[in-house]
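User: Fold this; tokens only.

Assistant: Input:
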Amino acid sequence: MAIDTDILIDYTNRRIYQNAPATAPTYTSQALYTYLMGVFDDQAQMDNSIPMSAQTPNAFTMTNGWFIDDETVKWFKGGAITTDGWLHPTNPTGIRLLQLDGAAGLSAADIGKVVTGVTTTDTGTLLAYDVTRKVLWVRCDAADDLFDNAAEVINVDSVFCGNTTAVSTTGENLYVNVYTLGTLTSASDTIYVIQNDEKLTSWWSTGIDAFDVLIKVKELGATIDSGNVIVFCRYYPSAGDAALFDHVPITLTGGRQAVPLATALDLNNTSSQAVASGYAAAMTFGFAGPYSRTLGGVTKDYDVEIDLNGDTVAHLYEAIKYVCREGSTTQLASDNGEEYIAADAGYAPVKASPLGTFAGGTFFGARGVWITDYAPADAQKFSLISSDNTTVTPPNTVSCKVVAVESGDSVAMFMLGSSGGAIEKNTYTLNGQHLASVTTVTVNEAIIDGWSGQDPPEAGYLRVVSSVDGSEVLKKYTSWTGYVFTLDGTLGTQCETGWNIYIPIIDEAAAGTTIENSLVKDLVSTVYIRTVVRHYAAPPNGIVPWSQDTAIANTGITVNATRTPDGIVT
């Protein structure tokens, strides 16, 4: 169809309007200007005012109070449109916006009908209406038609339309042209706009070339959110193979303004929406920070906490992409996920994925994001940034394992002196007398510093060495902090001040073919160990006592025990 068929002219009411709803921007603003100039150049139009002027090829003005409605503007691209002559009563026949409590029963046939305020007796002509917003655009009949009663009955063609809920407003409109530059992953990628914390209902097609639109920035003299909008592309198709996200905030002031958007296929986000939604549903998202949390001995505040409930960081990444995709209504910090940007407005956004990215098998949290209860195998597969912008990495937790043992074998893994040799039995000294009934053991040395600068196992066994006869008390502990070990039950034996204490890595009977424990190891020190396996029993179950000295690598250690049957014991 041609522009003179799609866009019509109402000479009586001085309005430009659409013949049918627009499905996408079809014509340039310059084409509208050209069309109108051609019409109003006719001899028969010499008595009508010119409806439009051009300031540049990308900036145009509806002049002489001519009216164009919001829906008609959606037909156009390529140049901004502003209005002139709407301000009332500067223009006695200017335009006012009436806000009602309802606007039902209106139809296109009511355009041009008389609008009356029953209390004020103000009158005008109906130019447009929006049933959803419950508003009327009215051309006033005279300078004193102010519609300035905040609660009067409004009739259209003497038929009740609604009651005003505020004094009418007047002023000019501004529609700024916004278009995109860049490359998207496919022609199916969709672009959406958030304005004043609301998502605009799109009238444009998919793909980067389709986004060339006019967005209303000023309505009846009032600038909408200072002209700020955010243009998003967070495409996540239902079948998977999502793209990295992008968004650009921009302040619209006039003319034609470009928004650079770029996305790329996300090779770490291939799950379908159905699968990723399952990951997200199993996780817990908290935004009630600050959360004070400790990682690798560093205590910091975080704004967001995500509980993975035992899942992997790879699944976490797909879950956060899902909850931040276009169309997400998941509430993140009181916003729909599709418009979530960062935990704090002052933080630099991570556009590709606002809660964190994923590369090389590692999750990199956005600033202020804390994760917890992740799969044990992922203990080193993440890096976080605290609220104060400090990068915090997890400690080097390693597994120490003895394999090829059998149930009932007595297994121990002891730390040796700094250069190997004898078992280190004087790591700590007991702080004061400890009765048999105590449930904690306090030492004189800081626990982390005393254990050769390493973290002892979070839970395991401690040995208290008597300075009287060298006998040892073996006791299980469940946790430690500072200078205190918390026991599993009571100490069971009275121990005296100054007695030595040391911490084996493993010190118990095997229940199967493998026994292990974990500890935090720095990446510099060498930790020498001795592994001991024994099992006394009558043939054929007993074995010859076996031991081996080695060192724990930065990735942990697995010791293969040698079980030689002892045929001598009886």
